[in-house]
């Protein structure tokens, strides 16, 4: 079974992890983002991330709920 990969275009970098999760519709709000991150459900570049304010950059890979999303700068 192959993993799901999606590219999410952002207008500005860096973007905070919590903001990215909301932009990608992976969470409904900041509170849900905080809970998922605190519970160890979010990985950035294959490492569990515990900081909602983690600054993401171009081509970072965010894994949550069995899928992977890639940060891409909109040009």
Task: Give a description of the structure.
- The protein has 75 residues and is α+β, with helices and mostly antiparallel strands.
- It has one domain (4-73): RNA-binding S4 domain (Structural Genomics Hypothetical 15.5 Kd Protein In mrcA-pckA Intergenic Region, Chain A), CATH 3.10.290.10.
- The chain is built from two helices and seven strands.
- It has helices at 17-23, 30-38; strands at residues 4-10, 15-16, 42-44, 47-48, 55-56, 61-64, 67-73.
- A hairpin with a 2-residue loop joins strand 3 (42-44) and strand 4 (47-48).
- Helix 1 crosses helix 2 (30-38).
- The protein starts with a strand and ends with a strand.
- The model has no long low-confidence stretch (mean pLDDT 93).
Quick structural gist:
Helices cover 21% and strands 36% of the residues.
Give the topology, please:
Layout: E1 4-10, E2 15-16, H1 17-23, H2 30-38, E3 42-44, E4 47-48, E5 55-56, E6 61-64, E7 67-73
Parallel strand pairs: 1-7
Antiparallel strand pairs: 2-5, 3-4, 3-6, 6-7
């Amino acid at each position: 079974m192959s993993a799901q990969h999606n590219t999410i275009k952002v207008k500005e970098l860096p973007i905070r992890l919590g903001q990215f999760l909301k932009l990608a519709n992976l969470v409904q709000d900041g509170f849900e983002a905080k809970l998922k991150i605190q519970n160890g459900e979010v990985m950035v570049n294959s490492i569990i991330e515990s900081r909602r304010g983690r600054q993401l950059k171009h081509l970072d890979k965010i894994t949550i709920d069995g899928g992977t999303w890639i940060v891409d700068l909109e040009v």
